Amino acid sequence: MDRHAEDRVTWCPSGDAHRPESVVLGVRSGDNGQVVYVDEPVPAADVLSSIPEGIAPHRILRFASHCTSACANRVGDDCGLIQRIQTLPSSRDTGAVPRCHLRPHCKWWNQTGVDACHRCPALSTLNSTDDRLAVLVADPATTVEQLESWIAAAE
Ligand code: SF4
Q: Is 108 touching ligand 1 by the criterion CB < 6 Å?
């Protein structure tokens, strides 16, 4: 890919660890497993072999990979995952955004701006199957309207 084409690529901050271009976005090491972002992108391939067998890479790391039109989360040109995430009540809606190497090319930042960055550290790319709301948010088939109804009913 030439330099100009590379500049136009947007990246998913909830990416697939195993794609050729994948990089480590951060480490789930902060309070409550929140992501602490690495200063520079590290190729995922360089770290995956260091993760002990039996531990899913997404349990300890967040990865970024190219945002593709074939993604199940795509809604037109937009990312439906961050749309669903934005439906959730947020307690982090003020203050500085985290330092993050992905920002210039991040799909979520380019689509929604600062709100995505306030929510981003708390997100896990591993579906928690015992958390019904997390499963609904992660499911590309869930609509924003369904989420809003579910949240309203749970209140
Ligand atoms: S949403 Fe914000 S903090 Fe998260 S990867 Fe994108 S630019 Fe970085």
A: yes
Residue ranges covered by each domain of the chain: 3-154
Atom 7 of ligand 1, residue of closest alpha carbon: 103
- pLDDT tens track for 50-76: 998 898 998 899 999 999 999 999 999
Q: Is 116 in the pocket of ligand 1 (CB under 6 A)?
A: yes
**Contact (CB, 8 A) for 141 and 121:** no
CB atoms within 10 A of CB 116: 22
Torsion sign over Cα 42, 43, 48, 50: negative
Buried b (16+ CB within 10 A) or exposed e, 16-40: bbebebbbbbbbbeeeeebbebbee
Is the CB of 13 inside a 6 Å radius of any atom of ligand 1?
yes
Task: Name the helix (H) or strand (E) containing 146.
Answer: helix 144-154
